[in-house]
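TL;DR need structure tokens for one chain.
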Amino acid sequence: MKLKEVQSIVKQFVSEHQLETSVEARLLDVVSEIGELSKELLKGNDYGKKEFSKTSKWEEEFGDVLFSLICIANSTGINLENSLNIVLNKYTDRITYKGNIGSNNE
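>> reply
TL;DR here they are.
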């Protein structure tokens, strides 16, 4: 499935279930969902005591983050395929010229 299709599915779902909200609220939701995903990471590695193993809720929490990000993209007119291509090109350039994808000048 292409990202354009994914965006369309999410847009339809949000519309059907009257889940529209402001971009600001969605961004706060992303932060909240990343917190929940982080909690699952901590559970999955026993707070850093062992190698990470996916928890039973890892995929669901990951999906919550993704859903919220797609909602923001839809609300702000971002084409996810274009956005991803821009970033991949940027990272390719950084790898070529610096040997890594970091944004620092080192």
